[in-house]
Structure formats: structure tokens, C-alpha cells
Amino acid sequence: MIYDLIPYILLSLSLIGNLVGFLVLVHQMQVTNSRNRQCFDQKLDELFQKMSMAPARPAEPAFVPPPVRSGLNIDKRLQAVRMFRRNEDISHIAAAIGVARKEVELLIRVHKMTTTTGLGSIFHTPLQASPYALPVN
């Protein structure tokens, strides 16, 4: 009869041993965690002390470039268009107005686009009914 209980006794002893091992492991983890927490808090306090003792850096102003202004105001644009209509050279127009040649070329291109029949009719004539519009009944 006692021989029938031996496997159960050994099983219960091994389970108790495993439970004790698990509890020891949990206790060691808790102890290690508390030590690490104390060390972390101590180092964090040291860091805060160093930061409070460090001189404050003045804030650097952000660099904001000034806005780019066009060299062509309304008077210069009108003068350039008049000179262009008198068939003067683009470099001569740029020198007379005092702006870059590329700006004058751009102004003349825009002027040509607005005076042609395609876009010129949009800018220079009043609103007209489109030939593709549906008739209103």
C-alpha cells in the first residue's frame, strides 16, 4: 500500500520544490527591481541637480529672411511695356529701368501672353457669352 503512494509523494515533493523555486525567483526579481529603481532615481536626481546648476543658454533668434521684393513696380512695368512697344532692345529696357534682364524678359512674355487673341480676350474684353455655352430659354 505504501508502495502505491510513493509516486504521489514524489510528485507532490517536486511540485513543492518548483513552487519554492518560483517564489525565490519572484523575490529576487523584486529585490533587483527595487535596487535598480533606487539607482535610477539617484542618477535622475544628480542629473536634475547638474541641469539646475548649468547656466541657461540664451534663446537663439530664428533667422527670418526678408521677403524678396520685385524690382518692377507699376511705373517701371508701364515704362518697360512702352519701351517694348517702341521696339527697343530688352537689354536697353533693363538698363533704363534698373532691373535684371530676366525680369524684363518675363514681363514681356507675360505681356505678349495677355495681348494675344487667346488670353488677351480674357483680360481686355468684358465678359462675353462663350460660343460653347448652352442657350438660355
Task: Tell me briefly what this model is.
The chain has 137 residues and is mainly alpha-helical. The protein folds into two domains: 8-53; 74-124.
Can you describe this structure?
The protein is mainly alpha-helical. It has two domains: 8-53; 74-124. It is 69% helix and 0% strand. It contains five helices and no strands. It has helices at residues 2-53, 74-85, 90-97, 101-115, 117-124. α2 (74-85) packs antiparallel against α3 and α2 (74-85) crosses α4. The longest helix has 52 residues, at 2-53. It is elongated. The model is unreliable at 124-130 (pLDDT under 50).
Topology summary:
Elements: H1 2-53, H2 74-85, H3 90-97, H4 101-115, H5 117-124
- How much of the sequence is in beta strands? under 5%
Radius of gyration: 44 Å
Distance between the termini: 113 Å
What about the largest sheet? none
How many helices does DSSP assign? 5
Helix content: 55-70%
> What is the average of the pLDDT values?
82
| DSSP summary, beta strand count | 0
The gross shape turns out to be: elongated
Look at the helices and sheets and give the structural class: mainly alpha
Helix-strand pattern: HHHHH
